[in-house]
Amino acid sequence: MRDLMDLREKEHFIATRRGVLDPKTLSKEDYQKLIHEKPAYGQIICRCEQVTEGEILDAIHRPLGAKSLDGVKRRTRAGMGRCQAGFCSPRVMEILARELHVDQSEITKCGGQSRLITGTNKGFHRGGAGQMNYDIVIIGGGPAGLSAAIAAYDAGCRSILILERDVQLGGILNQCIHNGFGLHTFGEELTGPEYAARYITQALGRKIEYKLNTMVLSISKDKHITAVNREGRASSRSTRRPSS
């Protein structure tokens, strides 16, 4: 076959494949040097598996690089931890979209038609052009987020939106069935769900707007927030400047 097709061996053929660099295998001194040269290796994207942005960039830009969430996962273990990609997926999607020069709606789980973002939620729109404008956007409907929304409302702000990734407000308190909460705030001992219910009742009583099952994908420097839920994708903008 070689003689028939006049095949010739490439002079610069690379017979071995270089694996994705794992910074955890380096010494402390070498790891610090790597971060100094390539700061992306100092940014942890997957907290469970301690996978850095540098490793993900390597996985994307190498020959036959990753083009999907599962592609990154197989090469770097990002998404294989305890949360099963619950926290790092939005960041990995953002990196993939940025490096592949495509919109996040084009990013897939495992190629083909396995897109994670399927459309735009028209009910999410406010302010035209697919964008909502709020004075305050709060990410997380746990006790801190709820109390912040309530305090903002009581201070006179009426344009407030809470974005919560879970199916209900309350955050981690819904799992804390032991008592011991509420002594300082409400003057009585409550379980976690009871404590959360007090804040939820106050927020609902003030008619503070919220979205459940909603994952925030990115926050830009000019305060544009992109979020997605089962109904689709939308963006919002926080317009109030923090007081000095």
3D structure, described in words:
- The chain has helices at 2-5, 28-37, 53-61, 69-76, 89-100, 143-154, 192-205, and strands spanning 44-46, 51-52, 131-134, 136-139, 160-163, 179-181, 190-191, 209-211, 215-219, 224-229, 232-238.
- The chain is α/β, with parallel strands linked by helices.
- It has a four-stranded mixed beta sheet with strand order 3-11-10-9. It has a three-stranded parallel beta sheet with strand order 4-5-8, covered by helices on one side. A two-stranded antiparallel sheet has the order 1-2.
- The longest helix has 14 residues, at 192-205.
- The relative contact order is 0.11.
Arithmetic mean pLDDT: 84
Task: State the end-to-end distance.
Answer: 76 Å
C-alpha geometry: elongated
Helix content: 25-40%
Question: For the CA atoms, what is the radius of gyration?
Answer: 23 Å
The total strand number stands at 11
Strand arrangement across the biggest beta sheet: 3-11-10-9
